[in-house]
Specification:
Radius of gyration: 21 Å
CATH topology of the largest domain: Rossmann fold
CATH architecture of the largest domain: 3-Layer(aba) Sandwich
Shape: globular
CATH class of the largest domain: Alpha Beta
Structural class: alpha/beta
CATH superfamily of the largest domain: Glycogen Phosphorylase B
Helix content: 40-55%
Bound molecules: 2'-deoxy-thymidine-beta-L-rhamnose
Order of helices and strands: EHEHEEEHEHEEHHEHEHEEHEHEHHHHH
Number of strands: 14
Length: 377
């Protein structure tokens, strides 16, 4: 009989929580033949990633996943074999009581946020005994072998490579998005949080000897672009040019299309958790705008990832890319560090491909979760 899973997603803000759980749910169904109910408390966020979904339905099926609205007042629900709470969201008390009653007890997992910090390898998979006698296991995604790995669908890297070798498929895709870059222009995507230093980077792009075509999905960083263009109203579809720089505002598209956009670009600026991972699978030079936390708690996480990511680069290229990432995340002037990155562009590109292949040789997160469940039986 096929195993049943409940995944609980509480949308804190933005799209990362729902982005990760939706991808995971689909993959569990498609590749591991399990039945998945995905409980989401904010369907509006889900509809942005899956536009055909209903905003009102208490229950609906999308790509073989049963999507359930997680109501404020919890009703009754049968308990499946595996209960996965994403990012320490709090399960309803009535649901936990029902878990206690079930025989055999379900496997209870907390899927944590992605971090490259060393301590993750020591905590991955550890149980925590709850006061009611239930055990909850902490499952950490990550970049190293001793972690739960990264979300990666079967054949993803091959699909991306085929697309990147097919110029006409890329051109058709971009045209559908209304994007027609001039020949030879560097294509850059920017999905980032607000950044007061954005202007210093845009200045550099505008005075570059090569054309830069910057694609900005609608969202939080748009205000900074607007300010740089003298408070022009930048709506979806807007195209503004200054010197060598063209900025084009794109609509927020379904997840699969956003992936393709990343595959098309020469440089991707991404944020949070899910787009950060997807840019790594795109195997192109990238910059991570990390989600800001109180007391600068995000900075050690940034450094932990940089320590891994930059390790395969020459010292000069590592210095250039590291200083661009740090500068972007600290709101510092970006002109010089961008220029330095361009000097090492070819090496950074080779490195992005290598990094992608190395990560793709590890067990993916969905497979690791399924294996963890099997081992628990
Ligand atoms: O939206 P985010 O900033 O989410 C963040 C992070 O997950 C952060 O760690 C978490 O603490 C916070 O939310 C609550 O960035 P992220 O993780 O990249 O999620 C964005 C999702 O949106 C991702 O699944 C890709 C998707 N997306 C589209 O589907 N279409 C688009 O056009 C774009 C730009 C993104």
């Amino acid at each position: 009989m096929k195993a049943s899973w409940d995944i609980f997603c509480s949308v804190v803000d933005n799209y990362g929580d729902v982005g990760v759980t939706w991808r995971l749910a689909r993959q569990l169904v498609a590749e591991h033949g399990v039945g998945v109910r995905l409980w989401i408390d904010d369907l509006a966020a889900f509809v942005r990633l899956c536009p055909e979904a209903s905003l009102e339905a208490a229950e609906q099926w999308q790509d073989g996943v049963q999507i359930c609205h997680w109501p404020e007042t919890w009703g009754a629900a049968d308990i499946p074999d595996v209960v996965l709470e994403a990012f320490a969201c709090r399960l309803p008390t009535g649901y936990i009581d029902a878990m206690l009653q079930r025989s055999p007890r379900p496997l209870w997992l907390n899927l944590d946020y992605l971090s490259a910090e060393e301590w993750v390898t020591g905590c991955h998979g550890l149980p925590s005994l709850q006061s009611n006698g239930l055990k909850k296991f902490f499952f950490f995604p990550g970049f190293q072998d001793a972690t739960g790995g990264l979300l990666r669908e079967k054949g993803l890297v091959e699909q991306c490579q085929a697309f990147q070798h097919d110029r006409s498929a890329q051109r058709d895709f971009l045209q559908e998005m209304g994007v027609k870059p001039n020949d030879g222009a560097r294509l850059i995507s920017v999905f980032a949080y607000e950044n007061p230093a954005l202007g210093s980077w845009l200045e550099r792009l505008a005075s570059d000897s090569r054309e830069n075509h910057v694609l900005v999905p609608e969202g939080r960083v748009l205000g900074d672009f607007q300010r740089w263009f003298g408070n022009q109203d930048l709506q979806v579809g807007a195209v503004q040019t200054r010197g060598s720089l063209t900025v084009q505002v794109l609509p927020f598209v379904r997840q699969e299309r956003y992936d393709r956009l990343l595959w098309c670009c020469d440089f991707n600026i991404v944020r949070g958790e899910d787009s950060f991972v997807r840019a790594q699978w795109a195997a192109r030079p990238m910059l991570w705008h990390i989600y800001q936390q109180e007391d600068e708690a995000h900075l050690p996480k940034l450094e932990a990832f940089l320590a891994l990511y930059l390790a395969g680069l020459s010292p000069a290229a590592a210095q250039a890319l590291g200083s661009l990432w740090r500068g972007w995340n600290r709101g510092l002037d970006l002109g010089e560090s961008w220029q330095a990155v361009l000097i090492h562009e070819a090496e950074i590109e080779r490195h992005a491909r290598r990094w992608c292949l190395e990560r793709a040789s590890q067990t993916d997160l969905a497979a690791a979760l399924v294996q963890f469940y099997r081992n628990s039986l």
